[in-house]
Amino acid sequence: MLRISNIFMNLNSTEEDLKNKIFKILKTNKINSISIFKKSIDARNKSNVRFVFSVDIDIDNEEKYLKWKNITSVKKYSYNIIRPINNLKNRPVVIGAGPAGLFAGLILAQAGLNPIIIERGKSVEERKKDIDEFWTTGKLLNNSNIQFGEGGAGAFSDGKLTTGITDNRIRKVLLELVESGAPSEILILAKPHIGTDNLKIVIKNLREKIISLGGEFRFETRFINFNAKNNKLYSINLQNKNKEYVLYTEYLVLSIGHSARDTFEMLYKNNINMEAKAFSMGVRIEHKQEFINKQQYGDFYNNKNLGAAEYKLNTKTSNGRGVYTFCMCPGGLVVASASEQGRLVTNGMSYYKRDSENANSALLVSVGINDFIDSTPLGGVKLQRKLEEDAFILGGESFKAPAQLVGDFLNDKVTTNFGSVIPTYKPGVTGANLKYCLPNFIYESLKEAILKLDKIIPGFANYDSVLTGVESRSSSPIRIIRDFNFNSNILGILPCGEGAGYAGGIMSAAVDGIKCAEKIINSVGVSVE
């Protein structure tokens, strides 16, 4: 099979136009098949915004074309698991049903190893009801919220599948998501997303597939301890409501989320090797989506084929801090994402159509281990909690978020009224001065960075744009140490995914889950191809 890259097409071109362009490139229409491999937007020239395609073709005499520009030979993708004779004494267990846990569970189930997936939260259907109530009333359930429950934190963040990693397992993840109901376009878009509204369907279908293959889910069940002999795992302690019990297993995929603070504390107390990890914190920034569209697409901003525009920005401040945008949500909402009483957290999300009035993004400042409250591995968690507590108080102690106009932020003024950009955060915002809930190094870095980023996107520092605090859960402040075979210092406990410090988003977490499952499968004599 051949792949032709860098095929530029105008925004209103049809599939037939693309096919004719390929015929012209190859100087023949005798092609057995054509399939789009990748589609992206080239907006470098605002007066000529275009689509860019890569296509895979099946054609006779392939070698004839291999020396041509932008044409390479590729193999058809496959991911195969040879099912073993299951000689495990006990079933493998996966802690956490976020992207890492779900894909670890899926691969283990496809290998016939009948995994048990433990999730402290509820199924995605029940979880959504609790989150909707929290956003409406401010009533928080500690184990059923944006952070905890089936699907993990990513289930309520637009389902962005962009990633900085390169791994052939990415294709496996995308194919499984499409099979479970995700839009098929995620297979070809350079910046794919599923949408929060679609994700609950996809996650439910993934769960049902795992169950059909012999897996089991235990919701509202907490992992509270583990038991080892000669540094080798043999059982774990679980709690379902008020009932505690022991589950015997020799393999535990520890795919806890970045907010599983009580689990971090338990593991640290029980001498699991871990270390503090640098991460980032800051605020959410909101602009009108139409403004972002105009800045990114110029005169083409209202072309319906483009959809809502995105951005990704970064800069360095005079104090040496990196400041960057993260988890940008076109046509989205800023959402309440707390998981602990008395501590306020924000995040962003979009529905599939991305048709809300505002765009939002995290605006984050790098935080190093020297900034942490103490030198223990839990020092970053303590710093997160300090910011979240201060934000909760500043917002009025009712899970209303403190928010400030960008202009007021730059001029050190309390916001009393909002302008053209209306904050989207629910259960509501309180006009404030965010410097009272941010460490000085974050506050000063943000002030300088906003003005620098305004030179990249003119109007980024518009007075009426809105900052909402705080964004404190961008990634895990902890890394649980693992060896080449992904084992922690306790053989059989495999730290996995974002919470363990090995991923940074849905896709990289899912891929890490697959890798952990492969390690278990290979340990019982099975090869994964």
What layout of secondary structure does this protein have?
Elements: E1 2-9, H1 15-26, E2 33-42, E3 50-58, E4 71-73, E5 93-95, H2 99-110, E6 116-118, H3 124-137, H4 169-179, H5 196-212, E7 216-218, E8 221-229, E9 232-240, E10 243-248, E11 252-254, H6 261-269, E12 274-276, E13 279-288, H7 289-297, E14 314-316, E15 322-329, E16 333-336, E17 346-349, E18 358-367, H8 379-395, E19 401-405, H9 406-410, E20 429-431, H10 440-453, E21 466-471, E22 478-480, E23 493-495, H11 506-523
Parallel strand pairs: 5-6, 5-11, 6-7, 11-23, 19-20
Antiparallel strand pairs: 1-3, 1-4, 2-3, 8-9, 9-10, 12-22, 13-18, 13-21, 14-15, 15-18, 16-17, 19-21
Helix pairs in contact: 2-5, 2-11
Explain what you see.
The protein has about 525 residues and is α+β, with helices and mostly antiparallel strands. It has three domains: about 1-75, Alpha-Beta Plaits; about 95-275 and about 480-525, FAD/NAD(P)-binding domain, CATH 3.50.50.60; about 280-470, no CATH class. Helices cover about 25% and strands about 25% of the residues. It has eleven helices and 23 strands. Strand 5, helix 2 and strand 6 (about 115-120) form a beta-alpha-beta unit. The chain is globular. About 45% of the residues are buried. The mean pLDDT is about 95.
